[in-house]
Amino acid sequence: MQKEVKMITKKIIVDQSYYNDKVKRLGEVIRAGGLVAFPTETVYGLGGNALDKEAAKKIYMAKGRPSDNPLIVHVADISEVSTYVKRILPLEKRLMEAFWPGPLTIVFPKKDIVPMATSGGLRTIAIRCPAHEAARALIRAAGVPIAGPSANISTKPSPTTADAVLHDMDGRIEFVIDGGDSLIGLESTVIAVENGKIIIYRPGGITRDMLEAFAPTELDTAITAEQEHPKAPGMKYRHYAPSAPLTVYAGNIEAVESEILSFANKGKGKFGFFVSQETAEKIPAGNIIFVWGRRGNKKELAHNLFQGLLFFNNHPVDHIIGEGTDGGGIGMAIMNRLTKASGTHIINMN
Ligand code: TXA
Ligand code: MG
């Protein structure tokens, strides 16, 4: 009979000189088919060798992710892209030069060297070059591109700290590199170039306005209309679900605030609040509150978003009452994640 061996996930803390012996050893783990979670400026990734279909299968297994939802391939430098894709358009080159390393993922037609297991059965491949030094050091040390979905169990919020990775992945992967809080806190923007236009498949760290400066930019219609078939297969699945049902109030701020405050009188401990600092200051003491950030400071709100959804793992409530933000700039990505996290329970107040 085979003995069951429980894997222990080790947390590796890296110092500022990322390209060191520790990272070299972790690169060997990836090359040998193992899984190492790594920090990026968006969220933590669950890394495996993107050219190894067995490693891709392990990633899907560790996440409990449907195998038709493709993985993002991470490279350390623009020069590596041509090894994996059939062609690079001048506009794609300009976008890579402008935004890499950083939170932009581009979908290209893939070469056969990238297995279908990595691309979820698609003939295209999504590639990005992360800004976090530890991520690029790991890719260099591995000597192969690294497939990296967000390092959470499928349907759960994405992790922005090493401890959040451990919460979901302990015992499922070999290592997690602790590189601190993810700076942006929201996943990359996924785009493709079609007929000279940029199509946003998933809103993220790079905003529509930033892309418009390069070419006309449109949203994949599935992002705004639920019934459409999304271009990014991952967009159709349940996502970011916190530990209790979430309802988000958005729109006219006075109306939002008074609606949220009305729940504070309906039973302490029953409701949890995911609200701006301004609203939090008005909620009576004794309530369970995650202070999301200063209202309108969208960088701060993006940075704290997933930590806020995960906060309720340790503070159990029956229902989470959330506050939204407007959809401008990175607000589009924030509201996209909140729409999914709430199972579309967004109430627009006016
Ligand atoms: O910021 C990020 O993008 C993080 C960090 C770790 O890099 N990664 C990430 O990966 O969010 P993941 O797997 O959780 O989300 C990848 C998204 C999914 O919605 C997926 O469907 C889409 O990108 N995607 C990947 N390859 C694609 C392709 N070939 N065509 C269309 N969409 C694709
Ligand atoms: Mg994800």
For this entry, give a set of tags:
alpha/beta, DHBP synthase, Rossmann fold, eleven-stranded mixed sheet, five-stranded parallel sheet, globular, binds threonylcarbamoyladenylate, binds magnesium ion, DHBP_synth_RibB-like_a/b_dom, nucleotide-binding
The average pLDDT value, as a whole number, equals 92
| CATH homology superfamily of the largest domain | DHBP synthase
| Bound ligands, named by name, code or SMILES | threonylcarbamoyladenylate, magnesium ion
Total individual domains: 2
Secondary-structure element string = EHEEHEHEEHEHEEEHEHEHEHEHEHE
Shape summary: globular
Which CATH-level-2 architecture of the largest domain?
Answer: Alpha-Beta Complex
Low-pLDDT windows of residues: none
Number of helices: 11
Q: How would you sum up the major sheet?
A: 11 strands, mixed
Q: What is the C-level CATH assignment of the largest domain?
A: Alpha Beta
**Beta-strand segment tally:** 16
Gyration radius, to the nearest Å? Answer: 20 Å
Gap between N and C termini: 65 Å
CATH T-level fold name of the largest domain: DHBP synthase
Secondary-structure class: alpha/beta
Which percent bin holds the helix content?
25-40%
What does this molecule look like?
- The protein is of the alpha/beta class and 350 residues long.
- The protein has 2 domains: 10-184, DHBP synthase (Alpha-Beta Complex), CATH 3.90.870; 246-348, 3-Layer(aba) Sandwich (Rossmann fold), CATH 3.40.50.
- It is built from 11 helices and 16 strands.
- It has an 11-stranded mixed sheet, with helices on both faces. Strands 14-13-15-12-16 form a 5-stranded parallel sheet, sandwiched between helices.
- Helix 1 (21-31) crosses helix 4 (133-142).
- It is globular, with a radius of gyration of 20 Å.
- The protein starts with 9 loop residues before the first strand and ends with a strand.
- Threonylcarbamoyladenylate (TXA) binds at residues 40, 42-43, 45, 69-72, 103, 105, 107, 119, 122, 124-126, 128, 130, 148-150, 187-188, 190, 201-202, 231-235.
- Its EC number is 2.7.7.87.
- It catalyses: L-threonine + hydrogencarbonate + ATP = L-threonylcarbamoyladenylate + diphosphate + H2O.
